Amino acid sequence: MSRRLRVALKVSVWAACLVPAAKLAYGWWTDDLTANPISYITNELGQTTLRLLLLSLALTPLRILFGWGWQMTLRRLLGLFAFFYVCLHLSVWVVLDHFFDWREMGGDIAKRPYITVGMLGFTLLLPLAATSTTGMIKRLGAARWRRLHRLVYAAAVAGCLHFIWLAKKVRPEPWVYAAILAVLLGIRAWDAARRFGRRRADLLGSPRMDSTVGPASRPGARLLILLVVLLGGCASLTSRGPGLAVPTREVLPNGVVVISQEHRASDVVAVQLWLRVGGRDEAPAELGLSHYLEHMLFKGTPTRPPGSIDAELEGLGGNSNAFTSYDFTHYDVVVPVSGLRAAAALLADIAVNAAFVPAELESEKKVVFEEMSLTEDDPERFLTRRLTEVAYVAHPYGRPILGTRELVRSLTRDTLNAYYTKHYVPGNMVLVVVGAVTPAEARAVAAETFGRLTGPAPVRPAAPPPKPLTTGAGEDVRRSEQQAYLALAWHAAPTGNTDIYAVDLLTYILGDGPSSRLNQVLREQRGIVQTIEASYIPRQVSGLVSATARLDPRQLDAAEAAVREVIVRLREQGVTPAERERAIITAESTYAFDIETAEGLARNYGQAETTWTLRDEVEYLKRLRGVTAEQIRNAARTYLGDANYVRVRFLPEGAR
Length: 656
What we know:
The chain is an alpha+beta fold. It is about 55% helix and about 10% strand. The chain contains 26 helices and 11 strands. The strands form 2 sheets. The protein has a 6-stranded mixed β-sheet, sandwiched between helices. The chain has a 5-stranded mixed β-sheet with strand order 7-11-8-10-9, sandwiched between helices. It starts with a helix and ends with a strand. Residues about 200-230 and about 235-245 have low confidence and may be disordered.
């Protein structure tokens, strides 16, 4: 091959290798990276790495099968491009998914096998990239260099395993890559066996074998063509972008809503029961009953005596959880896919047949008292509770979710059962099934279990809007801690209001992470707080934006003034394009982490169905990315005023 032709070939390979990066850059520029851009970018970079790695590994089999040598000059170039893309792939995980949280990343590497194997593959590529120069080949010697670079096969195996375990649903691409790698390894193994046989024949005085394969081996050409076609097919399969699958929503004749989605990250299924009842539905004499039911439903039914439910779940290889909010209560079971029907039958049973055994009812009171004590002893949790109560005085959202010690102490079975039978009716129920099952399978199980339930129509009066806040409302609480705590809160958009997307981004810009405005001004520049963050809880009737800080008690007034100053500047000057983009990336990263598991995805769907709509949830990221900087500024002007917030301060007992 002439020098000019070699140069043209390398230029062509360079251009082809840069195409995936150019496509991603163009997608970012045109805002066309699917509804979940972080997931899409991660997937594209990872698959590009595997394609280039397998192409580099295919060059030696080409020489083995056909005796060609011209392509070998491209091996290092393809390998270095593979390393370039795997570095970008890892950077997305480090920067966008975890924002340099090394402790969290270390935990992920240790606990999640697909990340462990992926990091192993990246580590194996490091010495190969470092020694892919002519100078290093000379220093190591050709033989030692070749032995070292056989690690690329182990790295490719790790990469294929990483992709197979990472896949969230049944996809052909990971298995196609694995099959291609198996064929390439098979060719190398066959060649090694052939060369060993040749050496053995030489030692025994047999005629020397040909150094290349002749016409009898031409099936290898068809095999290599098939490998190229498969790699191209993988590229076309992913060019549409992964996105998120759309969940299926159905309503059974008795009113139970069934939401299902196939999600094959592993052979498990999340089965969740959501109730449209929570702390806001309690009368003054019923405070804490929604939460108490959360504790009691797994304690037994007439057909499942106390202790048997835990034993049944353990026998299935599953686990359970539950959670109570002002707007909903939910019960969560995760089991192997073979336990789907048993899990649904269990949830259907406890949904309407809880026994409330008196002994269990009484013993659980001690557990609730301990939970109250834990909340009161934790300054940050108690600060959040007190802030909510102050922000929603005389409103259902201002009631203590756990109730009071007096009401819990005097609770009777009849009182709890009356609340249960009133609210736990099919029309208030949402069953969410997400995992390694099809929507048809989930629907059949739902109809067989929850479809048989009966009960009266639900009665849920609309909650009134909260009273407007006025500056000056708040309280100071003396605590045993040596540091002070400051919390400010504003009413904001509820779920169902289109402002929620702008408010969400607004709070990311204000107080999420080291680069946020509150952190930069109060912590980095002025040093008047140890920690500060902003958050947004979009409840069904009224959302709440809050800013909370831990600081020296002498800085309380200065910190409150500084928070207001930051907000005033944001209202007047707006936000920068970089801040908006960073907030969107942060929101996307948080969202991607939330839906990584079947349990997390089911939780998002259940909360959406009970507090706004499933469609809003599915389109959340798309709508979020459409929010403009001006809309974020308008959200600050609408909700974060100087005269409509409340304050809670925790002061050390000896502080003035």
